[in-house]
Amino acid sequence: MFSYVGACVLFAALLHATWNAMLHGNADRFLSMTWMSICIGIVSVAGIAFLPMPASGAWPCIVASGLVHIVYNMALVRAYQSGDLGATYPIARGSSPMLVALGAALFAREHPGVLPLIGIALVSAGIVWLALQRGNVSRKGALAALATGATIAVYTVIDGIGVRASGNAIAYTAWMFAFYLLMPLLFIAMRSVDALRAPIGVIGRGIAGGLVSVAAYGIVIWAMQFGAMGAVSALRETGVVFAALIGRMFLNEQLTVRRMLACCVIAAGAVCIGA
Predict the structure, then answer these.
(1) What are 155-174's pLDDT values in tens digits?
(2) The pTM is what?
(3) CB under 8 Å to 220, separation ≥6 — which residues?
(4) Which of 45, 71, 158, 243 gives 17 a disulfide partner, CB atoms 3.0 to 4.6 angstroms apart?
């Protein structure tokens, strides 16, 4: 895994932590997520015009993943309304790699070796340890974060299966992300058209976050053509280390010795996956 594919997934982890920090840094996360989704949807639709159609076998996965991503977006917004980035992000991300490995074994007949499984377990344990060190997560926030983790596992397994059937990872990604245009419709239904109005800074950060998000998950979908879903997912979730650093540097969140040790456990897991 620590070929160029693994390096790309680690870069995707950094990108993912970055756009989550952009989302968490705005007071109205629902509005920010909606503008991110508008950007993602427009970019995807524009790309579709220049890409081949995915193979027919991929379409059930494209539709299912697109809809699950909408649920994920709403769960993520709810989680970030209840806790800070350094607490909710690790809970959401840490609960998914083992679920992805289990789902891949059940539905894609993937059976990673002993060392990658140890790596997946270490990454998950380190992330959970990182999350449990924060005492300011409400029960509501923890449940929302766990729900987010469950949706992450579901769409990751769906996309791992779908991209392999699609014949073109970029085309698959573009069509799946086109479903993000449902987010502004949901926002309008829950609030109003006028509520979409926002300061230029919020819109600008939403557009930037959307572009970063497309790159981050597009890399992950591409990587799942070559590596086991559980291993790719676990490497991706090392983004919690980047999130902890970003939270410390830009959001004035604490980075204690215990949190640094948890980050080391996560890094050790990543090494096992790549060995």
Answers:
(1) 999 999 999 999 999 999 99
(2) 0.81
(3) 9, 12, 156, 159, 232, 233, 236
(4) 243
